[in-house]
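Milestone 3.1: sequence recovery, worked example.
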């Protein structure tokens, strides 16, 4: 081929190497002839963190302009900054603070939630975030086994299969199994004896009825946030019993509001016996929150039958730190005493010896109750204030203890 007489490229410079058909590297054009157009050149960062393409809009979830250091976010307008420790705990628990209003106390509403930390693997609802006792789709490895015809090819561990094949000199396939991620069922059992409603406002002591309602709604919101089915039980007087099996994710607001306090003294023991019969609705690994002051606790036989079902029983102890967990020094004073069942008021005068005996009885009763929970492997939540912030803190502390002691002996 005569390269000297060939036609020249119309955009080429003068010189023999710019002729068509030349095979030297310098004769090739700079722009691509085939395929997509060349990408836009990236401009220099100019002091920013990374280079960006020109004429590219910011993402939808980001501001078009950067706020100054310490400026408040335009998406979440808050009144005043919270302490960093509370913000970290709230972010870990998934809490959602709301503005102050008539139903808000201490800046915290029942919309706040706490994480449900299980004691053992659950058997519950699919497509959640808790490790199940069954095999399925999840991130927690259960073990490995040889491949069987019919197994999903995506379950094959190719690296382990290659190592085993090289060691044995044959084609071997290893399947890696995972624990499924499910959500447990949650049951709230409320003690509605008349004594639970004897210290209502405006009395300066612990309002157990308010604690019962707020704590039950807090547990309900946390269960819904974990995509769990929520159930409810309270044994009022004859004909007023309420039992909703955990078959739906609806909250408990309409079941709790306005419920009477007319249950018998042994309602906790009778309630446990009733729940033991509900094997289908309450499988192993389900959460059972028992809300009571436990001044009349169930017998040891009832506790053993309930724990044999492999439930995650969480006693929520609601006791006044002055009158229930201890007893004040009121010797020489006339103290009004109310019978919660009849409502009759009697005035008594206690001596110093009698107040000391009552204090010792109350403290020993609480110590015995804690020892019973410890022997049964139960981790209780103790609530001594009717402020929603203090209740949330008690449940968050319970979750922290569960997270720290997971996998250990109680």
């Amino acid at each position: 081929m005569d390269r000297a007489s060939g036609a020249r490229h119309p955009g080429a410079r003068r010189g023999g190497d710019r002729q068509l058909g030349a095979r030297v590297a310098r004769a090739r054009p700079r722009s691509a002839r085939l395929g997509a157009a060349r990408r836009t050149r990236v401009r220099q960062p100019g002091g920013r963190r990374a280079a960006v393409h020109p004429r590219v809009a910011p993402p939808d979830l980001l501001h078009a302009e950067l706020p100054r250091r310490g400026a408040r976010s335009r998406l979440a307008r808050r009144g005043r900054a919270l302490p960093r420790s509370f913000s970290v705990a709230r972010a870990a628990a998934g809490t959602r603070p709301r503005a102050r209003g008539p139903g808000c106390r201490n800046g915290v509403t029942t919309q706040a939630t706490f994480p449900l930390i299980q004691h053992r693997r659950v058997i519950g609802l699919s497509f959640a975030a808790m490790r199940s006792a069954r095999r399925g789709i999840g991130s927690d490895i259960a073990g490995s086994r040889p491949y069987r015809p019919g197994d999903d090819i995506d379950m094959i561990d190719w690296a382990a299969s290659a190592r085993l094949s090289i060691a044995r000199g044959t084609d071997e396939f290893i399947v890696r199994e995972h624990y499924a991620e499910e959500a447990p069922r949650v049951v709230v059992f409320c003690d509605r004896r008349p004594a639970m409603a004897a210290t209502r406002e405006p009395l300066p002591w612990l309002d157990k009825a308010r604690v019962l309602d707020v704590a039950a709604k807090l547990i309900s919101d946390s269960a819904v946030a974990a995509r769990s089915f929520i159930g409810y039980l309270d044994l009022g007087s004859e004909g007023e019993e309420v039992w909703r099996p955990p078959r739906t994710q609806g909250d408990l607001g309409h079941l709790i509001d306005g419920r009477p306090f007319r249950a018998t003294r042994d309602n906790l023991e009778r309630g446990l016996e009733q729940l033991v019969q509900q094997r289908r609705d309450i499988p192993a690994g389900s959460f059972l929150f028992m809300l009571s002051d436990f001044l009349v606790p169930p017998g040891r036989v009832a506790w053993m039958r309930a724990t044999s079902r492999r439930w995650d029983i969480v006693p929520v102890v609601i006791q006044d730190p002055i009158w229930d967990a201890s007893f004040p020094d009121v010797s020489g004073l006339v103290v009004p005493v109310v019978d919660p069942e009849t409502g009759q008021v009697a005035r008594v005068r206690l001596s110093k010896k009698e107040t000391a005996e009552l204090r010792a009885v109350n403290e020993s009763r609480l110590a015995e109750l804690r020892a019973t929970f410890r022997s049964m492997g139960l981790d209780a939540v103790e609530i001594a204030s009717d402020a929603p912030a203090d209740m949330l803190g008690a449940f968050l502390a319970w979750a922290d203890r569960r997270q720290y002691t997971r996998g250990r002996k109680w």
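Residues 125-183 form one domain. The radius of gyration is 34 Å.
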